[in-house]
Amino acid sequence: MEKRTLGTQGLVVGAIGLGCMSMSDDYGRPEDRDETESIATIHRALERGVTLLDTAEAYGPYTNEELIGRAIRGRREQVVVATKFGLANGVDGSPANAKRAAEASLRRLGVEVIDLYYLHRKDPQVPIEESVGAMKELVEAGKVRFLGLSEVGPETLRRAHKVHPISVLQSEYSLWERGMEKEILPTIRALGIGFVPFSPLGRGYLTGAFKSIKDLPEGDWRINIPRFNEEFAEANARVVAGVKTVAERMGAAPAQVALAWVLAQGPDIVPIPGTKRRKYLDQNLDAIKLLLSADDLAELGTLADLVSGDRYLPWMMKLVER
After folding, report:
1. For the chain, domain boundaries
2. Which long-range contacts (CB under 8 A, 24 or more apart) does 42-49 make?
3. CATH code for residues 3-204+262-290
4. Tens-place pLDDT, residues 229-283
């Protein structure tokens, strides 16, 4: 797989990473989760050149890190382990929690160092300088290699970067979520920060697998996303139809087209589509072979204008900076 560099500090990873959250949390029904298949999916990803595995203490909570730890045992040299703190028990970006969470994540993952350590959401009660200052101390102690932030805006990025170089910003970005483009992408590029988009498939919506919350199983966290509500289904179906049009023309799956579009937005971008099954992993990774023309990119780029509905409920939107 093609390699990409995230940030000017030299973090090199495969061009597509693997989001591991759904293996333990939020998507689908708990009884449908299969640890054996999840671990097999991680192993297949490593065999195909994926290096970046993304998890967080909040996923499960805690159980996803344990699963990753079991999966990478004996394969540590193949993996760039990324995890996050600050959202497992409410928002807590305090220095004490940064250090406590890191020690706990190290134990659950079964590693001696966390390759990429994120603040999951900025804590409104804690200056970003204090949160990143504690993360910097973890780097100096040899417990963390690179630092990242998630869902923060330009001012926070600039303030944090003065405390310690930030290697990666992780935020939602896809054909139906492009709020990053106006101010945040120019900021991270000016600062030399790489970008890891989560939900590059629109939380599965862009694959065409479902049309609204009626198609989701009971207990699936996505029923809380306003954008999936019935009132927006007709408008958002036009977005999926646009992706399918390009996919059919290219003989590809909609998921591959959606991922190829994200990959084409710059060599400093490494999307982390999530899956817990090998068949979807293989489909996603084959997106790297898909070359979209300038006309394809322009056609797909207009779809964001059709998107209706918010990304999150109001209280969650308050934790997202733009």
Report:
1. 3-204+262-290
2. 42/18, 42/68, 42/71, 42/72, 43/71, 43/75, 44/278, 44/281, 44/282, 45/18, 45/281, 45/285, 46/75, 46/78, 46/79, 48/1, 48/281, 48/282, 48/285, 49/1, 49/14, 49/285
3. 3.20.20.100
4. 999 999 999 999 999 999 999 999 999 999 999 999 999 999 999 999 999 999 9
